[in-house]
Amino acid sequence: MPPKPFAFKLSTHHLPFHNLFSTSPFKNPSEKNIIHDPPFPSLPFLSLSLSPTLCVRALLLRQKMGSPPSAFCKQKAIVFLRFFMILFLCSIPEKPDLCSTSSFFNSTALSNKSLPNILSLEKLNLDGYFSFDNIEHATKDFGNRYHTHPAAVLYPKSVSDIASTINYIFNMGSTSAITVAARGHGHSLQGQAQAHQGIVINMESLQVPEMQIQVGEKPYVDVSGGQLWINVLHETLKYGLAPKSWTDYLHLTIGGTLSNAGISGQAFRHGPQINNVYQLEVVTGKGEVITCSEQQNADLFYGVLGGLGQFGIITRARISLERAPQKVKWMRILYSEFSRFSNDQEHLMSKNSFDYIEGFVIINRTGLLNNWRSAFSPKDPLQASQFISDGKTLYCMEIAKYFNSEESDLVNQKIENLLSELSYIPSTLFMSEVSYVEFLDRVHVSEIKLRAKGLWEVPHPWLNLLIPKSKISEFALEVFGNILTDSSNGPILMYPVNKAK
Known about the structure:
Number of strands: 19
Shape: globular
Distance between the termini: 20 Å
Helix content: 25-40%
Radius of gyration: 23 Å
């Protein structure tokens, strides 16, 4: 039998809570952005947001032969059901009212059937509270293309606030028409964190239980689902520890990324964030609070991790930790040929050499290397100054090596040996040495600059592709080889991922 594939890529790190497969109150999504454990390894699966801006995250998949199968592969029935539901949903046209930036509703516009049910929620005895006014922020997300107005926003102070609310709505029955969506940092793309005439749960107001860190042979942190990853990083570093797997952007909630996958340049080594979780606390669609893990309520555990919120809301997570490094050697190198770029990524993955490997496509960027000089230093300044990128399609591999101060000389020699095995353009080697925190929080620096220019809260259409290794060269030839070099903009990111992880 051929090896069973396991690979997936999510469009963004967000909190879309909806349930297609039960009578829970979670809302149904208008689009699906996940391919989880595709059954046909030779085909490229994709989810699509049509837009005038080309934005692609393509994963180069590498099958590690002889590797033990991932535990997530056990969920065959769920996987196939999701897959066919995805295909079905992707064939449904988008609803016009979801795409309009002027589709705002307030509580007075609710149907006669929904209004009494919504207002009755005020009777619940909660530690937190419901807000029915000034809730326009809940109509927006990072994608900034879908705007639907909820009837109310719940600001929970305890897990019981979330459980009581969902249980109350569940007991109304399906005739209540009230939907629920949990919102973390609002980083969804297509309105998944919004609930038309329903209830949006503001997860960031849930800060219990307090963060608890366990040191020892298998260190971990217990943290609220509404806590931000950047806060987890700063707190665990006080103990010399840190999570193993990250996203590129850390100002997102724990529950948000774990309901997706949580992928960055460390995923080829450690797997996505959902592969580094020991235990979860989940509020189900019936309002039950359940603790789950590989050994306890395993079906719920595997369903919730990467399940796009279809099986419950993550209110607490126990996340695996490792010893944290102090510093990072951060490098960028360029390729003019895609085959050399992808082969070198494969080579570095097979050697388990660097701690972080990503890549991106660069199109017609005038003075590209000069722009890098603000954060990186060229190994050969003279050759770098003579490099011309105008009108070209280039491929950048971004790599990093973690280390401690006393290991500096050894790490430098190891990096030099590894780079000598690669086929990049020699004049384009740029290097930087930064702290571990500076490296992990690098995107936030860009966010601050973009906000200052008014370029952060703009529409962010996004296209995501999962591409098997067997098809990546053909894809690169057809897509990257025909990109319009005078009009393309937006990031085109390339994440190499080991399917065994």
